[in-house]
TrEMBL record:
GO CC entries: endoplasmic reticulum membrane
Record key words, sorted: ATP-binding, Endoplasmic reticulum, Kinase, Membrane, Nucleotide-binding, Signal-anchor, Transferase, Transmembrane, Transmembrane helix
Domain Protein kinase: 83-314
Gene Ontology annotations of biological process type: protein O-linked glycosylation
Bilayer disposition of the protein: Single-pass type II membrane protein
Protein name: Protein O-mannose kinase
Catalytic activity: 3-O-[beta-D-GalNAc-(1->3)-beta-D-GlcNAc-(1->4)-alpha-D-Man]-L-Thr-[protein] + ATP = 3-O-[beta-D-GalNAc-(1->3)-beta-D-GlcNAc-(1->4)-(O-6-P-alpha-D-Man)]-Thr-[protein] + ADP + H(+)
InterPro entries the record matches: Kinase-like_dom_sf, POMK, Prot_kinase_dom, Ser-Thr/Tyr_kinase_cat_dom
Database matches in PROSITE patterns: PROTEIN_KINASE_DOM (PS50011)
Native source organism of the sequence: Vombatus ursinus (Common wombat)
Gene3D superfamilies reported for this sequence: Transferase(Phosphotransferase) domain 1
Pfam annotation, one family: PK_Tyr_Ser-Thr
Length: 314
C-alpha cells in the first residue's frame, strides 16, 4: 500500500499534468470526504423515531419526557407557582440558570440577571419560541414580565465540558471518532439551520472565543447537540443590505473571523462607527476550530481531522 502511494506520487512529478497539483489534491480530498460520508451513512443507520417523539408539536406547545400530548407553553402563573428551584447550575452575563422541578420532572429555570440586559433576554426568548426544532433546546414556558423562562434540563451540560463527560466511565464507549464526528456534523447542521432559519439568516454572535461558543450549546443525554443560548442572534439580509456586527467593542484573538477584526491597524484607535459590518460567514470561519475540538484526540480523530481540514494537526 505504501509503495503504491509512493509510486503514484513519483508518477505525478514525472508526467505532464494539465491540472495543477493543488487542484488534484483538492479533488482527492473531496472524494475522500464523500467516501467518508458514504461510509458513515452506512455505519449509522439511525433508529426509527419512537412514535412519541416523531411529530413536532404545533407552535406554542411542547411535549417532553413521557408526555403523550402537546401542552401549551406554561404561563407566568404556572411558572410562579408550579416550579421549584433546586440548585444553580450556571450563570452568564444575561441569565442565571437553576435546575428546578416541575410536576416531578427536572427542568431548567433561566432568570434574568439584571434589568440592563433585559433586551438581550427578550431577544433570546423570541428566538427560542421561533426556532423550536430538533436543533434548539425545548422551551416549556416563559414569563417576560418576570424575566424567566423554562427549558428542558440537560444533565450533561454544555459542550464546554464534553471532554470531562466523555471521560466518565458511563460514556467512555462513546469516546470514539465515529461518535465525535457525528457531533461535529450535528454542530454544522445547527449552524446551517440558523443560517436558513424561518426568521432568515441568523448569526451566532455570542462566540468570541472557543469556550464562549461551546457554552452556548448543550449536550443531550442521547448525545446530540442543541443550541441553547440564543440571546445574540442578529439577522442578516443581503438582499436589503442588512449586515451585522457582533457587539460594539473591538474583537481580538485567533478565534473570531478575520472580518471581525479592526482592519485599520494598531495605530488607528478602534471606533465602532468605522468598523465595517459583516455577515454569517463569521460562523463558517469558526467551524474548523469547533469541529476540531469536537473530534478531540482519540484513536482515528487525527485521520478524520486530516480529511476534513487537509492539514494534519499535532
Ligand atoms: N437547559 C439547561 N440544562 C443544563 N444546563 C443549562 C441549561 N441552560 C443553561 N445551562 C447552564 O447555564 C449556563 C448559562 O446559560 P446561558 O443560557 O448560556 O446564559 P447566558 O445567556 O447568561 O450566557 C450555561 O452555560 C449552562 O452551563
Ligand atoms: C430580505 O429582504 C428582502 C427585501 O426587503 C425581502 O423581500 C425578503 O423577504 C427578506 N428576506 C427574509 C428572509 O426576510
Ligand atoms: C431587511 O430584512 C430584514 C429581515 O430579513 C428586516 O429585519 C430588516 O428590517 C430589513 N431592513 C430593511 C432596511 O429593509
Ligand atoms: Mg451563554
Amino acid at each position: 500500500m505504501e509503495k503504491k502511494l509512493q509510486g503514484s506520487k513519483r508518477g505525478f512529478s514525472q508526467r505532464e499534468i494539465p491540472i495543477p497539483p493543488a487542484a488534484l489534491l483538492l479533488l482527492a480530498m473531496v472524494l475522500m470526504n464523500i467516501l467518508l460520508y458514504l461510509y458513515l451513512d452506512h455505519v449509522f443507520v439511525s433508529p426509527p423515531p419512537s412514535g412519541v417523539e416523531a411529530r413536532p408539536c404545533p407552535f406554542g406547545t411542547f411535549r417532553m419526557g413521557q408526555m403523550k400530548n402537546c401542552s401549551p407553553w406554561l404561563s407566568c402563573e404556572s411558572l410562579r407557582t408550579g416550579v421549584r428551584k433546586l440548585k444553580r447550575v450556571g450563570e452568564g452575563a444575561v441569565k442565571r440558570v437553576f435546575l428546578s422541578e416541575w410536576k416531578e420532572q427536572k427542568v431548567a429555570l433561566s432568570q434574568l440577571t439584571s434589568p440592563e440586559v433585559k433586551e438581550d433576554f427578550l431577544h433570546g426568548v423570541k428566538m427560542l419560541k421561533s426556532l423550536q426544532s430538533e436543533h434548539v433546546v425545548l422551551l416549556i414556558g416563559y414569563c417576560e414580565d418576570d424575566g424567566t423562562f423554562l427549558t428542558e434540563y440537560h444533565p450533561l451540560g454544555t459542550l464546554k465540558t464534553l471532554e470531562e463527560t466523555l471521560n466518565l466511565p458511563k460514556y467512555q464507549s462513546l469516546n470514539t471518532w465515529h461518535h465525535r464526528l457525528k457531533l461535529a456534523i450535528n454542530y454544522v447542521n445547527i449552524i446551517n439551520y440558523l443560517h436558513t432559519s424561518p426568521l432568515g439568516t441568523l448569526v451566532m454572535c455570542d462566540s468570541n472565543d472557543l469556550d464562549k461558543m461551546l457554552s452556548q450549546y448543550l449536550l443531550t443525554s442521547s448525545f446530540r447537540i442543541v443550541a441553547n443560548d440564543l440571546d445574540a442572534l442578529p439577522v442578516v439580509n443581503k438582499s436589503n443590505g442588512t449586515l451585522i456586527k457582533c457587539g460594539h467593542r473591538e474583537l481580538v484573538g485567533e478565534f473570531v473571523a478575520p472580518e471581525q477584526l479592526w482592519p485599520y491597524g494598531e495605530e488607528t484607535p478602534f471606533y465602532d462607527e468605522r468598523m465595517p459590518p459583516y455577515d454569517e460567514k463569521t460562523d463558517i470561519w469558526k467551524i474548523p476550530d469547533v469541529a476540531s475540538f469536537l473530534l478531540g484526540h482519540v484513536e482515528g480523530s487525527d485521520v478524520v481531522r486530516f480529511h476534513l481540514f487537509e492539514i494534519p494537526q499535532a
